[in-house]
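Case study B.
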Amino acid sequence: MSSLHLAILLPFIAAIVIPFIYPLTKRLHTGWITMLIPTALFMYFVFRLEDTANGGYIVEEMAWVPSLDINFDAYLDGLGLLFALLITGIGALVVLYSIFYLDKTKEQLANFYVYLLMFMGAMLGIVLSDNLIVLYIFWEITSLSSALLISYWFTNKGSIFGARKSMLVTVFGGFAMMAGFILLYMETGTFSIQALIDQRDLIMASPYFIPAMILVLLGAFTKSAQFPFHFWLPDAMEAPTPVSAYLHSATMVKAGIYLVARMTPVFAGASEWFWIIVVTGLITLVWGSVSAVRQKDLKGILAFSTISQLGLLMVLLGLGSAAFTGETIDENLVYSAAIMTAVIHLFNHATFKGSLFMAVGIIDHETGTRNLQKLGGLMAIMPVTFTISLVGLASMAGIPPFNGFISKEMFFTELLQISSMNVSGVETWGVVILAVAWIASVFTFLYCAILFFKTFFGPFEKKNFSKEVHEAPLGMLISPIILGGLVIVLGLFPNLLVPTVIEPAVASILPHLPAEELTINLSLWHGLNTELLMSLGVIGFGTTLYMTYPKWKNLAIMQQDRDPFNSVYDKGLDGLSTSSEWITNVQMTGRLKDYFTYMLLFIVSLLTYSFIRSDSFTLSFTQTEEAPLFLYGIVFLTILSTIALLFMKERIPLIITIGVVGFLMALLFAVFSAQDLAMTQLLIETVTVVLLLLAFRHLPEMVQETGSRLRKSLHIALSASVGLLVFLIGTASFALRNDANFTPISEYFIENSYSLAGGENMVNVILVDFRGLDTILEVLVLAIVALAILMMVKLRFKGGEDV
Amino acid sequence: MKYSRSHDVMQRVLITITIYFLVAFSFYLFFAGHNNPGGGFIGGLMTASAFILIYLIFDRRVANRIIRFSFPGILATGLFVSLFVGLIGPVFGDEMFTQYFDYFDLPFFGEVELTTAVPFDFGIYLVVVGMAMAATVTIAEDESKWKS
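Model:
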């Protein structure tokens, strides 16, 4: 257990503790206690910066399920650290902001902070684990905790709708991603990302390459709200604003970006990777920015803006993957600039979008509305929020001297360079990509302008607001001011964080390039060149569009502020529920007999199939003459009592006869010197008979089976085939063991049970030492059964409940 | 469970003695498990059958007075104990559910084998007792009538 593991688990531990200390600290806002965690973790990660300098990394191993190659190995490199700093840093600011945003007297704060900490720990787990399965587990915890956070105001219908939507989409992607991971495992035999990178050539040559790549990308695209999976993000805006600022701009949606960056060394180099990511990113970029213009809700604009910016990051990562295709190192170093741009823009986006979400949250909190048609003239009333928004929006629109301008210029540089890249087909389509990206930038400028001018300028209509409008309290302003300050500082001194944070992150995305060569020198003024002219064009066209906005805002497409893809989702969900209802009606008849029929049919067909497939029908009577006579006696009695069961008309003799069968089985075990089994069987029989007798008076009268002749013969056939199959399995396994000379697995236990586990009773040693996990899971099943009985009996439906 | 035959003194005395033997035997089975037939599962079932005898012979109210713990609680405790023991492994950098054992020379007892398998098995024992008793008692206490 290293400090890195502790850092990942600390939020989870805190999440367990919070509900217990929450009642004790009614007078103090729980947020103050929660804030200690991300702050401490942020400090911790700042001190780890020197470990990752110049492409260095740390691995801390911890075995979890080594037999399945699932290990909780923590891996800290530049990329992981960049994300860890964002998660903890912005996390601390968000918690600080939420202290003033959420009223401690009205809200269920313990729930909120538990979910938030769970989410924080899961994000740290994603970015710091080297094992794909562990990454997947944390990935799904983020889906789960974000759904909990979105539905935090659960009395609100929209919150539940949004939470379910985000959960369905991201979990679907997560499943696909896991399938991709398993394909990779089948090819390479490892779940470790670093080991996968070492086996790059093997993966590239494998037939699983394309399916694995697409499945992993599905996970990344759904999480990062890429087209056409983007439609969940706007609905996720039902969450409290601190959550939106944290999950939907700075961290969770960036998990997809992280995954693509992390898997770049594994997959990049294939032109499929390049094209899928670039095209998806480009469509998302345009679609997001155009859709944002249509929005009437402040958070809606920001949601689509996030979608669009995530698309931009994807485009950059896709372009940067060309750094794996160049023939020489120098050529690759040129292409690597796209990766640098992506990393820088990732950081910049987290700063300006975080501050913007918080500013919008302040507006919502202080005016009671987020509707653009009601807002206006807030500049004089909320000067601080105004300034924060100005800085954030200018940065997002790409106006100097803010950090967004720098990364946008670099983006243009990459686009201009694209046709020289060493990827098939790029010569023909390079210009299209450039044009589409430029148009998207114009729309980005446009929605920034709309958000800015509609909110802060124009007349202030007092009747539009349900409460007295005033500037937010100081505490609520601190966090956005810090983030906005970063936007300005990083714009004026762009190289401030480059050597410590950005360069190591780039180096870990591009491990095949020499780390010391991956240097970046950013500057606010980079001469009068094409990029600057493109920026001027964006501003010019954007302004024109804004000026003419009243003329085209009544177009049909502008009126539709819900995304058209929502209808696909709605129809799909409806279809899913009607079809599952239909299947349930067919299958769940409420009659035990039918359930058994389905189950046995399935079992019989599955076993028959595997029998035929492995061709294992064998009958062997070679050893039957060795059996002593009394064995025949026991078997005969067992068969006799089983047949007798069929002719019992009363319930008591039935139970007793079943008991007889059980006790004869126990006798059989005892004969074969399996005392443990015999004793277990005896006790189980005793307890079962007692249970049956206890439940006796609840059982209905025994009735003669009715039903058509066809149904009866079906049941007979099914029972006979079950019996036959069990018989065949028994004889086949017996014959195969004797004829094929398989070494029984018991040899291993006979040899090792004393030396490895220090016990002489092999059965028990297997149960507790060699197969402890099996045992606990079996016992868990028992526990679930007991609880189910409790539930069924104590909480029985009385009729009329709403189920 | 209904109070059956209150006047049958012989039966009650005999069964009371039997219960003591059953419980003692179940403890023996539990601890013998590592080297001889027995173990948490069987031990738990044996204890459960002793408890069931108590419920069968005495009135439910009397039995509830003698056995004062909640069986679902025992079940949960057992699960926690086993899981906790299983999680010792990862803390020391071994696999999950690694069991440790060693031989110690204790005064008075002589050489004794101490192993983490015993607390693990104890968890199993508790779950089995809790499960069997929770199911039995719940079904037995159910007063309602089912219409067939």
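The mean pLDDT of chain B is 80. The remaining cases will be described in the next quarterly update.
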